[in-house]
Amino acid sequence: MELKVEKASKIKGVVKAPPSKSYTHRALLVACLAEGESCLRDPLYSADTLATLEACQAMGCEIEIQDDLCTVTGTGGDLKTPQNVLDLKNSGTTLRFLTTMASLAPGCTVLTGDDSLRGRPMQDLLNSLKTLGVKAYSTQENGLPPMVIKNGFYGGKTQIKGDVSSQYISSILLSAPYAQNSVDLSVVGEFKSKPYVEMTLDIMEKFGVHCQQDPGNKFHLDKQTYNARDYTIEGDYSSASYLLSAAAILDGEVTVQNLFSESKQGDKIILDILQEMGARIIIKEDQVTVKGTLSSSDKPLSNNESLTSDKILSNAESLSSDKLSSNAKLSSSDDQTKTTKSTCDLNGINVNLENSPDLLPTVAALAAVAQGTSHITGVEHARFKETDRVHTMALELTKLGVDVTEEQDGLIIKGGAHGGVVKSHDDHRLVMALTLVGLLTGGVHIKGAAAHRVSFPNFPQVMEGLGCPIKII
To answer: Any catalytic annotation for residue 358?
Structure first.
């Protein structure tokens, strides 16, 4: 599947945010472990979450889907051994969460996936699980899937690095209540993407499990059981970021419903970022509206002041010439630079996305069409996603004439882009981010666009409904 994106005029509309992928994964797993029947309302049915759903079924959980209602009859922690190897497709979340959970099933469980998934580093998690009595190993002894997990989760004390993937931490926490003994987990080093762990603790608490969190990023979990319940999945700020950003880029007006102001999602910082870049944001309890950009005489709306994040750096901070020259620079070809580049009314930004690495593609796309230079930092761990997102975003934006400097932990982007042919690298977030650039420049042809189904299955249709000229070819 390919997408052809043409230049759009102002867009307008009211849409419902896709359900949160992160919360759907977590809700399915805790409902699977709970005893009794849970009703999950408005879950996300996408390639990734269906991988989790099917894995839960393979381990003895009964699941019935009826439109926007997913009824899960839990196992009470009494999991079954899968009859076959579990193919988790391209879902890294499923892989990491199931690695610990599979230790609760009798016998051996084998986890694998597609080419991309088999390149995901897992050794840190395997090392931590070993000290908890879990016998899990990589079949090729290289820390990569396929992996074999044997029955047995003794418990005890372990530690894990926090700078590679917060999903390692969530994996242990989600299954720890069913270990034979209490579990003490210490996060060592820099703790990146911490809001995702807070989301994990939030849903665990809502299903009746309490985790004691001590200063110094230490977690203690006693033996407990999840309680089945009705649970509604909130909207996904990551997926909504493309809709809100489109309105800001095109000076349109888009309201996205099912986005809650009290959400624990770290990607809620997109509201700060858009406002800092000059977008007009209106926030209500359960929805967000972007109404184009602010004029120079306007001030930020008072009801958004509470969302200011200390992760956003002052735009007045300069980028030293030494720093620019010390990094490998990706520049467009001579032919491309002769093409007229487009920018919108947004301003460049300096931002640390350490706790929101999934926003890297969105913010990079915004920076590509903004005025001035943007500096995105803190995203070295985004190199271990579906693709090396730092590199692939730099590579594909360069094809659109954008001046990009790739750093180890981020990107420096000078605004100005034109049309061109780009690749998704089978990464859903690249598909949607590159679409944003095309809405301003026109003439953007995205290959491998079917990847959007991983998190936002009806993305092209929703964008078309807002007035975006997107054609599936």
So the answer is: yes
Query: Which helix or strand (DSSP H or E) is residue 396 part of?
Result: helix 389-399
DSSP 18: P
Contact 147/133 with Cβ under 8 angstroms? no
| Binding site feature residues for 3-phosphoshikimate | 21-22, 26, 165-167, 193, 358, 385
What is the reported pLDDT for 216? Answer: 81
- Detail the residues annotated as belonging to a binding site for phosphoenolpyruvate: 21, 92, 120, 167, 389, 429
- The two most distant CA atoms of the chain are separated, in Å, by 67
Q: Shortest CA distance to 242 belongs to which of 6, 458, 42? A: 458
* Structure tokens that stand for 241 in this block: 């970021």
The partner residues of 185 in beta bridges, in order of sequence, read 158, 219
Q: Of the candidates 61, 74, 62, 64, which has an alpha carbon nearest to the alpha carbon of residue 43?
A: 64
In the chain, which stretches have pLDDT less than 50?
Answer: 296-297, 299-338
Q: Which residues are annotated as a binding site?
A: 21-22, 26, 92, 120, 165-167, 193, 358, 385, 389, 429
- Structure tokens belonging to residue 239: 């997926």
User: Six-digit token pair at 321?
Assistant: 């010439």
The one-letter amino acid code at 65 reads I
CB 32 within 8 A of CB 49: no
Domains identified in the chain and CATH numbers: 2-18+235-472 (3.65.10.10), 21-232 (3.65.10.10)
Structure confidence at residue 339 (pLDDT): 66
Length reported for the chain: 473
Q: Which of 184, 267, 272, 358 is catalytic?
A: 358
Residue 86: per-residue pLDDT = 98
- What backbone torsions phi and psi does residue 362 show, to the nearest 5 degrees? -60, -50
